[in-house]
Amino acid sequence: MALLSYEKQAFADAFNEDGLLVCARGMGLERIFVTFLKLYCDPGQLVYVINTNEEEQAYFIEQLELQDVKPLPKSITSDFSVAEREQLYLNGGVLFITSRILVMDLLTKKVPSQLVSGIIIFKAHKIMESHQEAFILRLYRMQNQTGFVKAFSDNPTAFIKGLCYVERVLKALYVKKLFLWPRFHADVKDLMEKHTIDVVEMEIEMTPAMASCQTALLDIISSCVREMKKSHPSLDADEDITIETALSQNFDRTLRRHLDPIWHQLSIKTKNLVSDLRMVREILGNLTQYDAINFYQFIKSIRSSERTFISSDSWLYLDAADSLFTAAKQRVYSSNKKTKAKPGVAAEADLWDDEEETTDSPAEECPKWKYLKCGGNQMLKRIKDRMNEMNNAANRRCKTTKNTKSNELTLTQMITHDSSGDEDDVKTKKIKIGLVDEALTVFHPLYGNSDPYSILRTLSELQPTYVILYDPEISVVRQLEIFKACNPGKPLRVYFLLYSNSSEEQRYLLTVQKEKQAFEYLIKEKAALVIRDDQDDKMEDDDEETSLSFRDARAPVEHKIIVDVREFRSKLPSVLHKKNITIEPATIEIGDYILTPEICVERKSLSDLIGSLNNGRLYNQCQAMCRHYRKPVLLIEFDKNKPFSLLQGKYNVSTEMITHDIMGKLTLLTLHFNRVRLIWSQDAYKTATIFRELKENREQPNLKDALSLEKSEEEAMLLGGMYEHVAKDLILKMPGINTKNAYTILNKVSNVADLATKSKEDLGKILHSDIHGEKLYTFMNHHETSQGIGVNATRQKVEKKRLQLKPRRKKNEKLF
């Protein structure tokens, strides 16, 4: 796989210096990445590749196999044991590894850090979201100062959020250089102009009914955006929340990013507007994707599902909604009689309920597909004739070749042979697929495919001459440009189908514009970027963290926290490590974090808290902590980007009922386990500060003691509040005893045998209730039951059974 000229320059820049390489989407980042993997596939090198999924790993290994690269990279998952992973580390080469496993091995010193040549990060724009990759790089730089760090990303729009986001990403990556390769780069532009694709743009007019549906949907979106800005004036000044940007693909994510911190303060009207915007945008996208019948059924199902709980301010009450429903039905039904529609949902319901209307013509056909079948017949005929001419010429050359074997079959011949002959005989033959006799048409979906490199595989395998791009997608356009530049001698014509004056066209132009603006922003940031030369050697705190005091800086104390391995999916272990706290991973059965020999913390996010309260798991966890630790703590941690409140809606009655249910269960939990302390934390940074304060002037935990759950009798009685928990549980199971009078029994009765000898009057006095005393006395001394229930009855049955099982001594038999 030969690199293009600009790809060679990008490869040289990233190879010579550590840095972050950001290129436009579809501009061949995977080709540069595969070249780096090929370079380091050497047993003398040890390179880790992180932040890749299974589909991406399979594609990279497949490309290296095509180039006969050995040894191939290996994927390390949880299926490998610790010993197997250590052996793979010593063997060297390129290793695809999950972030969680690499963090564990770095903390436990299983990784030979001094032998690591470097780390390659794919999709580096996600490093601030997952935080595990940043944790890995911090541990790596602490143990190895000479290895390289290479980061790659093809999503420039992800770097324009937040203040100084680019600088923070470079700081987390421990690199100083930023390499930018947009589509308008001079080298890229010159190369693409030399290998221009023959593009035929076909602007197809929408039908009048489709145009009416689009106009109605745009009016609804405009109305929802205006109402939302009226409810929250702060959104009016935001350039990302406009009617034009509402057509972009990432509008929902942008809107939720602005509203999530104050979501619990929003009125039910504003929340309904957010939901309406999401629904209307989905309808607008399906207008150009669905045919008339499926689109009609889709919006009909929406209306029928929302009719029962429709609110007075719903978009279904707008006049534009009536126009949408009328136009959608006209695309399916065509009738001579005209229905006089009245404004409002009631009249619209009559229009929709009229299902017996006769049709004089079939449903309206999709304009693009209609053009391909009718108006595009000449285009398709020219494509077919041209492909047949090329195949016939190639077949004639193949027939005159002397080295052509007799058992080589074309695809059509193979199919004919397969249908006429025996299936088993065909399977045993080695069949080589030759050229196709006739034009071959392949339909490839752009959306809904789990493989991100399916288009590249299709282009590489089929080597198409004609491509009809049914849906506009910027990444596919770039991939076709790269394919043409890599195959300059092969003709390629692309037919670009696009609805003129449509939301589809506007969405495509917005994508191109946002990418261009993102690169312009990154270019300005790169010019003003200030990175310290010694940042690789210093472990500085982020802006969110609280810096250490001068006293702590002069006399640092080494703190240690034992962390359960399952907690490394969260952000908290990374933040604790930034706080200069030693992290010791282990598989502990009780709690998530052990701060001291006495303090054990069970961490719960809001969703995990609700699930644990509902299924009863939190009760068992608190019970285990109370039995083994003197100071059990329940930590409830929220997300910094979400509201710091259990309330999800101020005026939502059902949500308030759920919230009251959660608070009621938490109250019962604290009443039952009175030694459990609750800590409410806003985010992971606040939690790290709280942990540090709790550990001040306290003993450090011991891993051996944390893994051992066995306690001495004195420790168990002390942790249980001077009572052994087994005896306490036994007493609470007896009738007449509850949590109020159980401690009276435990204080005044020495053991169960002593309890069985008490009279009914004594038990009534101890329990301060004759009724409870009678229940307990009946349970302890009842003999006249069919099953012999009671302590004395059980004791007699055991004694009788013991006497029956005792062997008899024979006459004249000696005892010894």
TrEMBL record:
Keywords: DNA damage, DNA repair, DNA-binding, Endonuclease, Hydrolase, Nuclease, Nucleus
Any one of the GO CC terms: nucleotide-excision repair factor 1 complex
One Pfam family, short name: ERCC4
Keyword Nuclease recorded: yes
UniProt domain ERCC4: residue ranges: 560-640
Principal location class: nucleus
Record localization: Nucleus
Single Gene Ontology MF annotation: damaged DNA binding
GO biological process, one term: resolution of meiotic recombination intermediates
Xref: InterPro entries: ERCC4_domain, Restrct_endonuc-II-like, RuvA_2-like, XPF_nuclease
PANTHER family per UniProt: DNA REPAIR ENDONUCLEASE XPF
Family: Belongs to the XPF family.
Protein name, per record: DNA repair endonuclease XPF
Taxonomic source organism: Dimorphilus gyrociliatus
